[in-house]
User: Fold this.
Amino acid sequence: MTAGVRVAAFAALLAAIFALAVLAGRVLDPATDAEAPAHGAGSGMHEQPAHSAGSGMHAQDAQDAHHAAPAAAGDGLRLVADRTTLPAGAAATLTFRIVDAHGATLRAFETEQARRMHLIVVRRDLRRFQHLHPTQDASGAWTTRITLPTAGVYHAFADFQTAGVRQTVGADLFAAGRFEPLELPAASTRAHVDGYDVTLRERAGASALRFTVRRGGLPVNDLQRYLGARGHLVMLRAGDLAYEHVHPLAGPAALAFATADTAPGTYRLFLQFRHGDRVHTAAFTREVTR
Assistant:
């Protein structure tokens, strides 16, 4: 074989190797599919309007991680929804997974507050609060029915416990349409909901918030247990949506919640309690200046 023929043959070989490499890259890193928007199909809504990863990545888990809608990260875990755009004012089904840093679906969850998963959904102007309890299927995915009552941007917080550690990860949800954000009501220590008068009693220097519930002018002393406790308090900070879900302290007749480390800011508080076999949600705006 002459030198010219050898050079031509070597060049042809290089071209063939390059073509195979390009093809392999398209198969192993489907950028077009990964960037495509996800499709798919979501009550407990109140007008006034939380580390152990699954081991190994399965083929289905990898596919879910590449084709799911964008998710918000937290401590290496992420909430990955089947879609993030839902209809406004209509019930729909929302399916999501909690995945680790490698994209593997987390399947091991522990019961906390009487449930293995709590989904808190609130519009980003801190209105339209919902507290939902999805169900998990054999693949590790969670599903719930949800209604985003009006157009706007909502944030979903998945609140759960795994390996003895409470975790909160979240993602935005969108309801298309004309959105008019609402101003937060002025800071107040009183709220009226479903015929109940709820008062926030905050003492200077105290490390707890205390609430009293009255109906018809009389104190309500027979609150029923809701999710294993006499009440639940979700606190969200305006702006960055800093999230805290706290349980009542044992002992006092009033509902008392420890909040010693609350940073300065404007907060929306959602107090949930059960009475008369119904869950009621009282909302407060609170200013923290110290």
Remarks:
- Confidence is low (pLDDT under 50) at residues 2-74.
- The two ends are 86 Å apart (CA to CA).
